[in-house]
Every structure is written in structure tokens, then in C-alpha cells.
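Hi,

I'm pasting everything inline rather than attaching a file, because the server keeps stripping attachments. The sequence lines come first, and each chain or strand is labelled.
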Amino acid sequence: MNATLLIQFFLFPGLLFAVPAGWFYVWGERKAIARMQRRIGPPLLQPLYDFVKLCGKRTPSRRGIEANLLRLWPALSVLSMAGAIALLPVFPGGHGFAGDAVVLVTLLEIPSICFILTGFTSGSIFGEIGAIREAILNVACNAVFLLSIVTIAVTAKTFRLSDIAGVSWNPGHWIGVFGILLCIPAKLRLNPFSTSSAEQEIYSGPLTEYAGAALAMWELAHGLEWVALTGLVATLVMPAGGAGWLHATLFVAISFAEVLLLSTLAAATGRLTLERSIRFYWRWAAILAVLAISATFYARFVS
Amino acid sequence: MSILHLLFQNLRHGTVSYSLPHKHECTSDQYRGLIVNDAARCVGCGQCAYVCPSDAIEVTRSGDNYSWSYDPGKCAFCGSCIDRCKPQTLTMESKLPPLYSTQSELKQVLNMVRKRPVRPAAVPAAVAAKSAVAPAAVEADAQAASIAESAKPAEQTARSPRKEDLE
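And the predicted assembly:
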């Protein structure tokens, strides 16, 4: 492992940047939704306060539940998200490797898988219902997500992220980015695709039985998911070339703009039922993604 | 698109909620704040503790001494104690209660000596003389008293039975 990758993992855009950025994005989402509902919303440091408060709480022991597994899933999610963020080609001429887009997609899937496993590990009926919902929704939205990534990769003729990010204006690239944007609410469990963690229906689903430091880790993993998914879109839409600091600033600005956009969507919509969510992804988004990838393949073979 | 218009309007008009701690004092004199006991008039009957649904008020007696305690952390601010208090020594503050971080932080304990019920004084001679001068007025008072007496049984049947009645 070279030094650049280590710096990317630990410093920027890795843990040192991503942890406060995740809290900042979570705060931005909560504040934006609150303001749109004419509430004041939380102060800037509220996600940090929540994290510290949860870390200080004692987790009650429960019979019949494997506590180590309950601690393992959020830790695995945090690590996978940190790895995914480290792979993002924020700076021009990045130091990625061939096929790192595949690794990135794999790492982005791990929190969802851990979330599903958490539901079944928790031994709670609400956790199991949430896990089933998450699994079904994941299958639905991942078809679109993967097709979008493949469309972008075919357009760029590579699976290397730094080369994909450097692609200039191309319709296939932008349709792929739009497809990823469509999937982000489901991956972040935001309205209207928040069935798996519906607080009012199933008490946060798989996180029902969580408390204390393990729940704090889940909150941290959720913040990192925000950074990774919005950062992925930001790196794909950033212009190629330019100074490093400009890229870093654009990365943060575009990511935060996405946070506001997704918050507006969450505030403007109610929670869809699972059937309607699946219908949206399989019928409309999947058709768009299939058309995009077909057109891209066709254009490539013709050229 | 009307929902986006609504969200934009909400953003434009600002917030309607208050930040904590409250910067705005409540202006309504009907506000149900903390219970205040006037120790000089309290007779220590314990009716307030008896009707309190959340056990926020406790009255403990030892001989003629008694202790009246009130825990706002438990209080439901229902006002039942005030309705029941015969000497009307309990009132509710019309301002917001202070913030507290630990339970029982605002608890008040009053240690008092039980007062004997005040018996009605003998009718002064001047009043007796006046009633003799104006028999019509006395007759009117007697008529009002008889009306009140006749209304009493109906009122008693309407209300729910008290604990003492059941015992």
C-alpha cells in the first residue's frame, strides 16, 4: 500500500475529513428539512453531541442475542465507507488503480448488507421487517445503480475512477450520473424510500435494538455514507483539470448542494410503500438505465 | 409543484418555533406554570396530594407538624390540586418554569405546623340588632339558604364518589 493511498484513507478525503464532513452533512439535512417545516432545527454541533452522548451510554445486555455480531456490523460499515471515500478521485490525476470502480461499488454495498444482517441478528420483529424491506429495496435500486455505473464506465472505456472522473461532456456519462442520483435516496434510506428505517412504523427497523456506542457507530456510518455517495456524484460531475485546492473546494460544495437537493426531496415527499418504491425503480428508473446503457454500447460499437 | 412552492414559502417566512432555552416569556396569564403554596394559609389537609394523579405532591404528617413537598419533575400541570384546595392556598405561576437537568432539582419542601380549623365567630350584637331592624333582608337570606339546601342532593348525586365515601 503506497503512501498516497494511506493519506487518502486517513486524511483527505479519508477519515480525518470524512467524519466531520459526515456530521456536517447530517446536520445540513436535518437543518434544511427543519427550516422547510418552519422549525429551527438542530445546532451545528448536534450530530457530534449525539455521537458523544451515545458513546457514553451503557448498552443493556440481552439474552439470546449475539452482542459481538451487533457490534461488528456497524464497525464493518464504518470501515467500508472509509475505504470507499478513500477511493474517490477528488484530485486530478488521482492515484487509483485499474478496476477501482468495481471495488468502490462493492464497498458502497457493504453498509446495506450489514444493515440487513443487523435486522436478522437483532432478534426483533421490527428489525426483521426492516431488514426484509431493505433487502427488497436494495435489489430494486441496485439494478439501476449498477447499470448507471456500467454506463459511465463504458462511456469512459475504463473502470478506473480517475479516468472516469476526467471524462468531458458526454450524454451517456450524465445519464449515468442521473441514474446514480436517483438511487441515492434509497441507499441513504431517505424519503420517499425510507421504508426500511421507518421510525413511525417499525421503530427504525434493524436499529430498534441498538443503543450506546454501537448505535453511535451506526450514526457515524450513516454520515460516512452521505460523504461517499454525494462525493461519488461530485467527483463525476467535477470538471477535469485545475488546481488541487479548487477540486477539494468543489468536491465539498457540490456534495453539500446534493445534500440540500436530497433534503428538499425528503421534505417534499411522503414515504412510499415498498411496492411503489420497487415499481418506481423497476419500471421507470430501470427503463431509463437500460436505454442509457444500450445507447452507450451502440454508440461505442458504431464508433 | 405546489409542495415545492409551500416549502419555499416556509423558508421565506422563517421559523415559528422557539429555540431553547426560551427567550420569549409566555404572555398568557392562563399559563399553567409551577404550583405555589401559600404557607401562611395552608391547613395541611392533604387533599392536593390525594387528588394529584402523578404523585408530584406529598404531604407527610407527624403530630401537628407536617411537610408539604412538590416535585415539578413529576407534575402533569393538570390543576386538580388547585381545584380541590378548599382554602385556596395553591396557585399556578403564569410564567415558564425554569429549565432543570436532574430530576427533583426544582423540588420544594415546606415544613409547617398544622393549623386548627378556624371556627366561625359568634354573631356580633350589632349584626343581630341590624337583622332585627330589617327582617325582610333576613327573610331573603333564609330563602336563598333553603334554595341552596334543596340543590345540594342533586349536586351530590352528579359528582363522582370520593374515597372517603367509598370507605
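Residues 31 and 284 of chain A are 31 Å apart (CA to CA).

If the labels don't parse on your end, tell me and I'll reformat.
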